[in-house]
UniProtKB/TrEMBL annotation:
Species for this entry: Thermophilibacter gallinarum
Domain Flavodoxin-like fold: 6-187
Top-rank lineage group of the source organism: Bacteria
Record keywords, A-Z: Oxidoreductase
Pfam families with a match to the protein in the record: Flavodoxin_2
Claim: Isomerase is one of the keywords in the record: no
Matching InterPro entries: Flavodoxin_fold, Flavoprotein-like_sf, KefG/KefF
Protein name per UniProt: NAD(P)H-dependent oxidoreductase
SUPFAM superfamilies xref list: Flavoproteins
Length: 193
C-alpha cells in the first residue's frame, strides 16, 4: 500500500535551470502544487551522473511510497537523457523491482508491481514528423515502448500515450509554453482519476 497520495515526478533534464525552457516551466508548475506532486530532479540530485547504493535506496523509498510515477524529460535521439537510464539501472535492482515472481506486489522482487507509470516529454521536432509517414516514422507511444516494456516487466502499468509537447526547438511562444504547462497539469491530474 502506498503512503503518499501525491504523484511522484522524476525529472531528467541535464540543464533544467539553464537551457531548459519547457521542462523548467513544467517543473515550476509542479512545484506550485506541493500537495499534489513530489518532484525529483535527477541532474540536480546526482550531478556526477552516478548513483551509489545509498542513493538507489533513497530513490527506491520514493518509488515505494507513491502509486503514480511520471518520467518527465526532453527527447534525446528518441530516448531519454542518459542519467535516467543510469537511474533505472541502479534503482530497479534484482530482488527489489524484479526477480520475485512468487512474491506479492510490494514485497522484495515486486516492489513496483501495481504502480502506474507515465511519460511526459518534449520533442524538438514537429508533431507531423512523429507519425509513421513522418521523418521519425514512429508515434510518441511507440517512442516510449521501452518505458512500457519495463513497466510490464516489473508488474507496473504504463499509460500508453505520453504527454508530449512538440516543436520545442522552433519558435515556441510564451503563450504556447504557458498553455503546455496548464495542459500538463490537467493531464497529471487526470492520471489520478
Amino acid at each position: 500500500m502506498t503512503a503518499d497520495p501525491r504523484t511522484l515526478v522524476i525529472v531528467a533534464h541535464p540543464d533544467l535551470s539553464g537551457s531548459s525552457r519547457v521542462n523548467r516551466r513544467w517543473a515550476r508548475e509542479l512545484a506550485a502544487h506541493p500537495d499534489e506532486f513530489v518532484v525529483r530532479d535527477l541532474y540536480a540530485l546526482y550531478p556526477s551522473g552516478t548513483l551509489g547504493e545509498k542513493d538507489a535506496e533513497a530513490e527506491r523509498a520514493f518509488l515505494a511510497a507513491h502509486g503514480t510515477i511520471v518520467f518527465q524529460f526532453p527527447v534525446y535521439w528518441y530516448s531519454a537523457p542518459a542519467l535516467l537510464r543510469t537511474w533505472t539501472d541502479e534503482v530497479y535492482g534484482l530482488g527489489w523491482a524484479y526477480g520475485g515472481e512468487a512474491a506479492e506486489p510490494g514485497e522484495p522482487g515486486r516492489m513496483l508491481a501495481g504502480k502506474r507509470f507515465a511519460v511526459a516529454m518534449c520533442a524538438g521536432d514537429i508533431e507531423a514528423n512523429y507519425r509513421r509517414e513522418g521523418t521519425v516514422g514512429f508515434t510518441p507511444a511507440e517512442v516510449i515502448i521501452p518505458f512500457r516494456a519495463t513497466a510490464n516487466y516489473v508488474g507496473a502499468t504504463c499509460v500508453a500515450e505520453p504527454f508530449t509537447l512538440f516543436g520545442t526547438e522552433g519558435a515556441l511562444t510564451d503563450d504556447e509554453l504557458e498553455a503546455s504547462a496548464a495542459a500538463y497539469l490537467a493531464w497529471l491530474r487526470d492520471l489520478r482519476a
